[in-house]
Amino acid sequence: MERVTVCFLLAITSVIALGIDEKRPYVKQCSRKDPKLKKCLIDALHHLSPYLRNGIPEIELPPVEPFRIDELTLSLTGGPNGYKIQLREMDILGASNFTVRDINLGSTFQALIEIPALILDAHYSSSGILIILPASGNGTFHGRFDGVRAVVTGAVSTSDRNGGTYMHVDRLNIELAVRVVNLQVFKIFNNNRILTEAINLFLRENGQEVLKAMEPQLKKELSVLFSAIVNQLLLNVPVQSFLSP
User: Fold this and answer.
1) How much is the average pLDDT of 165-172?
2) Is-above-0.90 flag for pTM?
3) CA distance linking residue 88 with residue 85, whole number of Å
4) 149, containing H or E segment
5) DSSP code of 3?
6) Mind giving me the DSSP string for 174-194?
7) By three-state DSSP, how is residue 7 classified?
8) pLDDT band per the 50, 70, 90 thresholds, residue 14
């Protein structure tokens, strides 16, 4: 979910649209004097989208699609035998297909973006008791988040080197809202149909609660990941390439 963030953070930083730098085709430039500067910046972020999707090898920027979270651990019911889920090697697709609805830049920044859908796939393992059923097993986890809205806020600093001014994201925070959550597991409990259906019924009826349990870890992982990606871009592109006087 959030390379969601990557997409608009990288986007945020790529403040761009009067022209495309021949050395940096992923950068379109905006003028500070443009009376429609905000629109220019938003158009520049959308211009950046395919480059985020595929990566930018010349500045060692990895592809946003898919982005991977190594591990999430969720406690979904209480008690000593509570139902716990571990999701490993989670790949998320769809973050580069973003639309920037609003953006405000400065020493602090804020961006509102929308993503039609995020697709999640991971290795699944669980332990504990779900209702009255033992729920320990391994398998495959699949999720789809439809109607994703993300608000990204943070702070940036600048430094001068080699005749240019460069930005750095010092702090990043992501708030997510998802309209529809669909979660499902496959090939668990040695393909035990009753147990698999019980888990999937729980996930269907409690999708938003599962997302809420995921969110603290998800936001932390995304913030670290996206800050690194955005800063890799900013390390290589001076502000003067983004914004002309």
Assistant:
1) 90
2) no
3) 10
4) strand 137-161
5) -
6) EEEEEEEEEEEEES-GGG-HH
7) helix
8) very low
Residue 243 and residue 30: Cα distance in Å, rounded?
A: 5
What is the reported pLDDT for 16? 35
The rounded Cα 120 to chain-centroid distance in angstroms is 11
Residue 204 CB neighbour total at 10 angstroms = 12
Say how far apart CA 2 and CA 115 lie, in whole Å. Answer: 9
For residues 230-241, one letter each, b for 16 or more C-beta atoms within 10 angstroms of the residue's C-beta and e for the rest, the string is bbbbbeebbeeb
Give Cβ neighbours of residue 175 (< 8 Å, ≥ 6 apart).
Answer: 150, 151, 153, 219
Residues 6+ apart with CB under 8 A from 10: 48, 52, 64, 226, 229, 230, 233
How long is the chain?
Answer: 245
DSSP for 73-112, please give it.
EEE-S-STT--EEEEEEEEEE-TTS-EEEEEE-SSEEEEE
Buried b (16+ CB within 10 A) or exposed e, 118-157: bebbbebbbebebeeeebebebebebbbeebebbbebebe
Percent helix / strand / coil, the chain, rounded to 5? 35, 45, 25
Q: What's the confidence (pLDDT) of residue 119? A: 94
pLDDT tops 60 at residue 9: no
Give tens-digit pLDDT for 89-145.
Answer: 999 999 888 899 998 877 788 999 899 999 999 999 888 877 676 777 788 999 999
Of residues 8 and 24, the one with the higher pLDDT is 24
Residue 64 in tokens: 């946003």
Checking if the pLDDT of 17 tops 50, the result is no
Contact between 149 and 176 (Cβ < 8 Å)? yes
Structure tokens at 40: 């220019």
